[in-house]
Design a protein that fits this description.
heterodimer, A: Arc Repressor Mutant, subunit A, 16 helices, 40% helix, B: alpha/beta, Amidase signature (AS) enzymes, eleven-stranded mixed sheet, 38% helix, 13% strand
């Protein structure tokens, strides 16, 4: 820790260096068809109160029944975070009044969560690796939504989200900068998406974070923290931390003290604002929910889930470096999304991995980014890209034509091999035809040909001319070889 | 037709089967009796149309030879059970206009078996009380009176309406809920049989929750056999209640009349409380003698943590209640009193909607769960609860088959006589019954005699978990020996 404190992540204040200490509580919506304790659908959208069961609306006499799939998703996530799975966990009631909380309590796990300590390894943009401790993961219900803009004097309540399963993933205070925090959330999101336990859609609020921020002089005990609630984008998490750290440093350097409080991040202004202080904090009166028995898991159930886990990003990254000879950077880029990694692997299978990686990262990602598309919607499939690479490898098309062909497939679709046939994009390997072209060009540029011996750089110019004359279809190697011969190089 | 209402459930079942009467006649006789007994305030809602429709359906089935186990049997349902399309209020102003769209599992099973709904019975508000005096609809008046007195007595609570309705022949049986004695104590006060089954035996789904870890539905009837018949329909596993037990439901009626020879009956010395009336002591002795005569062996047992049961109960119960009642906030259903903002709406709604006893329990419950008090109260209470449970387990594992105690420390008291100044005076009524809820065990109250003023007294039999059958066998021995008790009609 002290070594890291010495690093560049310190913030320069007016009176010296400060270290920012960050811990997070990430709320991840569990991917499941039904809610945590009711059979109602978790589908996003739909008219208000379309997905509400009697249990979600807390009608008298209704009882919660645990959704087994949500439990399995939490265990999978715990295993993906290399965490201890607790064979016995307990659901508690967190009591408070709010119109979008129909029961008057949220069912959560307080003292005995389903998942204990684990860790996440995060690689920063500069290549440094940081291990972030996971304190716990527990299951809880989401609340509904209060709508304050539907009526001049009344608030409306939409219970579609009420009772949807959330995983609250709590980190240890191991993060030391906004960069680290952002990289952590990105990595966590990747892991969750690999596991298929949360879709990570931050725009829909399916992944959001409460960020605890405090500052201290390097080596000193932890400072008083403020909690920034419900930040719903990675960029905002970074901005909120930067702002909050600066705010706290300014107060401390002015001789003030930090009040423990809950704050909100305003993305429009890029600042955090006080929401409630410690005195206003709720007393949630947690106690075990008597409607639910303790949740018991057998070793066999846990092992069955472990055996079924997909390959996770860290392992995939290591394998890509080891088996495909990729650079760590390329490997990182490719494993960030499972779909991307799968796409790459399909293309790389039986082909030159480096070329495959270059094409996926440069051509495909470049084009996807330009059009704001996801890999799932890529107009060029892995099979199509593979065909393009095969055509290039077997010398049927040149690299330049390959890029053109990629564009054609992107916008028009079709079988790359057929397109090459139909449009006559085939590389000219007929040496006679190439020789004829060369002879014409050499003849037309006799002066340059004469200088070529003295200035071999002119070879490149001749190659360009020949390629241009062939419409890019001449085999560049053949052109090169023949030209050398003709020019006596 | 009055004799139709004095049938036992089993007698009515036979009469219907032999077509000596029709289900419609049976229902009509009871509806008429209910109308004449409105002074008792036992029912908070009569459902004559539904009763007639259900009775007609029952007659049609009997005619087709397709009678189900409770075909045509008219029953009353405590207002804690949600009944689809029938107002359900828990006798609270806060639910004064609530009509559920769903049927509780227990009542759904009764209708599945052919029973007929006569109406919803009065109870203490949210089942909080031991005298039925906290109901928003006013108190139930016991059909019993002291010899030579016209003073109104309480029927006990919280299921006072169901108990009074059964005792006064206003139904053949009724459902109740028992959180700390709410079936057994009113059964004892009104001279009828009441059973609190093992926790998890009957589904809690669709029953307005009071204290979830203690609540259990059970039957009221005029005989042990009738209670056994009703339990068979009420009990069973329900996937909608995570605390319901996935165990087969035995033929409880077959246990009625079963020999009790060789059974070991424990008598806990700690239940001899200070100031217990001699009549109760004598009744208890009489009970032991009857069981001994029937071949059972009486052994003294010790339940050392009994003295902590009541204070512990009055922590666990309000804690759970304070949370269970949080949903009554005026937002989605029931009473709403508008305010300037949502907080004021909550405050006004809950102040207007909840009566004194409910507010008291919500306050106590909120207090014992609060930061800084949780460990001292709630957590400690849970630990004591475990010790209470262990007391019983030790008894049963030492070979005791059932435990015999008085149901209540006294006979019924007068309306307004107890708890006015000190709520603990009322809470003390539950001293013999709460331990059973704390331990999740089955408890049966059987009428065993009358006191000097002519009021009924009950004996309680406590069984092993899910061994209601032994209780029915023992209960029948007491019933056979003590006879049955009916109030003289004055209403």
């Amino acid at each position: 820790m002290s070594a890291r404190a010495q690093s560049s992540r310190l913030i320069k204040g007016a009176t010296g260096d400060w270290e920012v200490v960050i811990g997070m509580e990430v709320h991840a919506q569990v991917t499941s068809k039904a809610k945590l304790f009711s059979g109602a659908s978790t589908a996003f959208g739909g008219p208000p109160n379309a997905h509400v069961s009697l249990v979600d609306a807390a009608m008298p006499g209704m009882l919660p029944v645990i959704n087994g799939e949500c439990v399995r998703q939490a265990v999978r996530t715990g295993l993906g975070l290399k965490a201890r799975i607790n064979r016995r966990s307990v659901f508690d009631r967190k009591n408070y009044f709010y119109p979008d909380l129909p029961q008057g309590y949220q069912i959560s796990q307080y003292k005995s969560p389903i998942v204990g300590e684990g860790e996440v390894t995060v690689t920063l943009p500069d290549g440094e690796t940081v291990t972030v401790g996971i304190e716990r993961l527990h299951l809880e219900q989401d609340a509904g939504k209060s709508l304050h803009d539907q009526h001049p004097t009344l608030s409306f309540v939409d219970l579609n989200r009420s009772g949807v399963a959330l995983m609250e993933i709590v980190t240890k205070p191991d993060l030391r900068s906004a960069e680290e925090a952002k990289a952590f959330v990105a990595k966590l999101r990747t892991i969750l998406r690999y596991l298929g336990t949360c879709d990570g859609d931050m725009e829909k609020g399916n992944l959001r974070a409460d960020v605890n921020v405090s500052v201290r002089r390097p080596g000193e005990p932890l400072g008083t923290r403020c909690e920034i609630k419900n930040v719903n984008s990675i960029r905002f998490i970074g901005q909120a931390i930067e702002y909050e750290a600066r705010r706290q440093i300014a107060i401390l350097e002015d001789g003030g003290t930090i009040e423990q409080e809950t704050r909100l991040f305003d993305p429009a202004k890029g600042e955090t604002r006080s929401m409630r202080n410690k005195e206003e904090a709720h007393d949630y009166r947690y106690f075990p929910d008597p409607d639910l028995l303790p949740l018991e898991l057998t070793e066999e159930e846990i092992e069955a889930l472990r055996a079924d886990l997909p390959e996770l990003p860290d392992e995939k990254r290591a394998r890509f470096i080891r088996d495909y000879g990729l650079t760590p950077y390329d490997a990182d880029v490719l494993v960030a999304e499972r779909a991307t990694a799968d796409y790459f692997e399909e293309v790389a299978k039986g082909r030159d991995a480096k070329t495959a990686a270059n094409w996926v990262i440069n051509e495909l990602f470049g084009r996807l980014n330009k059009e704001g598309k996801e890999i799932a919607d890529a107009p060029v499939s892995a099979a199509q890209l593979s065909a393009i690479l095969d055509l290039m490898a077997e010398g049927t098309i040149s690299g330049k034509i390959a890029k053109e062909l990629f564009e054609i497939v992107w916008s028009e679709g079709g079988d790359p091999r057929e397109i090459v046939e139909k449009r006559g994009l085939k590389q000219v390997t007929d040496l006679g035809a190439i020789e004829k072209l060369i002879d014409e060009i050499v003849a037309a540029n006799a002066d340059k040909a004469a200088q070529a011996k003295a200035n071999p750089k002119l070879l490149g110019w001749f190659v360009g001319q020949v390629m241009k004359a062939s419409g890019g279809k001449a085999n560049p190697q053949a052109v090169n070889d023949l030209l050398r011969q003709k020019l006596g190089l | 037709m009055t004799e139709l209402t004095s049938f036992t459930l089993a007698e009515a079942r036979d009469a219907l089967a032999k077509k000596r009467c029709s289900a419609v006649e049976l229902a009509e006789a009871h509806l008429a009796a209910m109308e004449q007994a409105r002074a008792l305030n036992a029912y908070v809602l009569e459902t004559p149309e539904r009763a007639r429709a259900m009775a007609q359906e029952a007659d049609a089935r009997i005619a087709r030879g397709e009678a189900r186990p409770l075909e045509g049997i008219p029953l009353a349902v405590k207002d804690m059970f949600c009944t689809a399309g029938v107002r359900t209020t828990a006798c609270s102003h806060i639910l004064h206009n609530f009509v559920p769209t769903y049927e509780s599992t227990v009542t759904a099973q009764l209708w599945r078996d052919g029973a007929v709904l006569l109406g919803k019975t009065n109870n203490d508000e949210f089942a909080m009380g031991s005298s039925n005096e906290t109901s928003y609809f006013g108190p139930v008046i016991s059909p019993w009176r002291r010899k030579g007195s016209n003073a109104d007595l309480v029927p006990g609570g919280s299921s006072g309406g169901s108990a009074a309705a059964v005792a006064a022949n206003l139904c053949l049986g009724a459902t109740g809920t028992d959180t700390g004695g709410s079936i057994r104590q009113p059964a004892a006060f009104t001279g009828i049989v009441g059973l609190k089954p093992t926790y998890g035996r009957c589904s809690r789904w669709g029953i307005v929750a009071f204290a979830s870890s203690l609540d259990q539905a059970g039957p009221f009837a005029r005989t042990v056999r009738d209670a056994a018949i009703l339990l068979r329909s009420m009990a069973g596993h329900d996937p909608k209640d995570a605390t319901s037990a996935d165990l087969p439901v035995p033929d409880y009626e077959a246990a009625v009349g079963r020999s009790v020879k060789g059974l070991r009956i424990g008598v806990p010395k700690e239940y001899r409380v200070d100031g217990m009336p001699a009549e109760i002591e004598a009744l208890w002795e009489q009970g032991k003698a009857w069981l001994k005569q029937a071949g059972a062996e009486i052994v003294e047992v010790s339940l050392p943590h009994t003295k902590y049961a009541l204070p512990t109960y009055y922590i666990v119960n309000p804690a759970e209640a304070s949370s269970n009642l949080a949903r009554y906030d005026g937002v989605r259903y029931g009473l709403r009193v508008d305010g300037r903002d949502v907080t004021e709406m909550y405050e006004k709604t809950r102040a207007a909607g909840f009566g004194r006893e409910v507010r008291r329990r919500v306050l106590i419950g909120t207090y014992v769960l609060s930061a800084g008090y949780y460990d001292a109260y709630y957590l400690r209470a849970q630990k004591v609860r475990t010790l209470i449970k262990r007391d019983f387990e030790a008894c049963f594992s030492a070979g005791v088959d059932a435990i015999l105690t008085p149901t209540t420390p006294s006979a019924a008291f007068g309306l307004g006589e107890k708890g006015g100044a000190d709520p603990v005076e009322m809470y003390l009524n539950d001293v013999f019954t709460v331990t059973v809820n704390m331990a999740g065990l089955p408890g049966l109250s059987v009428p065993a005699g009358l006191d000097a003023q002519g009021l009924p007294l009950g004996l309680q039999l406590i069984g092993r978990p899910f061994d209601e059958e032994t209780l029915f066998a023992l209960g029948q021995v007491i019933e056979d020996a003590a006879g049955r008790f009916a109030p003289a009609r004055w209403w």
